[in-house]
Amino acid sequence: MTERIVYLDNAATTFPKPPGVLQGMVETYARIGVSPGRGNHDLATQAGDLVDATRARVARFFGAPDPTRVIFGANATDALNTVIGGLVRPGDHVVATRLDHNSVLRPLHHLAGTGVITWDLAPFDDGGFVDPDAVAALLRPNTRAVVMTHASNVLGTVQPVAEIARRCAERGVPLVVDAAQSAGLVPIDMAALGISAVAFTGHKSLYGPSGIGGLVVMPGLDVATTRFGGTGMDSTSLTHSQSWPLRLEAGTLNLMGVIGLSLGMDFVERQGVEALHAREMALLARLRDGLSGHPGITLHGARDAGADPARHVPVLSVNVAGIHPQDVGAILDGDFGIAVRVGVHCAPLVHRDLGTADRGAVRFSLGAFTTAEEIDLAIAAMHVIAGTVSS
Amino acid sequence: MAEAVRSRALRTVAGRAVYFDDEGFFWDPDDWTEAAAEELARESGMTRLDDLRWRVIRFLRSYYLYHGRAPLNRELKAGTELSLLELERLFPDGIKLGARRLAGLPNPRTCLD
Lengths: 391, 113
Hints:
The complex is a heterodimer of chains A (about 400) and B (about 110). Chain A contains twelve helices and 13 strands.
């Protein structure tokens, strides 16, 4: 195997990070790495200013009008737990989709299992898309929210959230979008799309480090406090601060992560979301075309990714006939130096519907630093594996 | 909605009753014996485990017993002096369900449980 790693697991986390992100994190943290917004010394004020500036950047990025409604957390899962837990009340009903990640499914499953809510799941079609009418058909008078992924982490399909938001709005139901796979690859203008809340993570296509993400909430959506603690404000009261964003943030923020998120977003904004997406989708089409001709390789999704790249992110899941996906991943890694993700990708219902739940699949996911040469290496490796095993 | 739960079942292999998981992996790696490996190999369609296959199995077991985990992909390759594709072909059920399972290592259920 070559020492050089071809990293095609960017949907798990982007790697490497852009030049300057890690160095900038260290330099800034070394300079002002104190508790932001706590106390009255200058360092705390400077750190607080950096956090506020990053909130403003995130709000602008997602087309949200109020930076104080940008809540920092650990990742998209953390943000989804915050918004789901803060929205639902006993007796509520929630709609999600069978495309969703466990970050959506498990909180809802838990709430349903403990008798707090009931829930329904919208299906996806053969192309990997959820029909807005199917979501609308599941709405009930007591539906508290629709919570769903923007882009499938298995199929790469970008869901029609604008149409779904319209149907939700007609019924007065907020739409909460899991943007873990789309933020940084697909423009998200919450105001224009009609999205009530977006959960995002910093370490995927926003090119920050792991451990930072957040929730962006539009005005008018009330999300109750579900975690309590220090906020640096109203400290004489035993009641948790109810002002935004503190109502949903307890304890000292991950300042190092906020710095890295801001630096990663610098990179994304310099490159341009559309330009990053277009480049990566061209490479994904190259990968799909290179694999699609082999009789031993089954492609899941991405069927029309070339014809309609705007409805996809650069993710392609495949299976090789006669070989366990975990073995494919091991061979790609050990023999060819290619890192991919195998398994069910924390999206069990997608794999159940694809018929791949028992063993999962092999997922290729591209990033800003993926090259055409690397894609060609992956295609060649897959042909060797598929040919060897089936021969 | 049903939750997937890893299950185990007791069965007799090479004269000993031991637990296996739902993919046929030893529930407890300490239950592994050479005789059990031979019997599992026959079930997989191999008439016997030859020297090369035993070399792979012994490397996997010794690595696991010393390090407490399975070898990295590159360590497996170096330790067996085989490519992973060769390993895949060497066992009818491949690397995971073949070599690793016959060596009695835990089931690497990455993102499957």
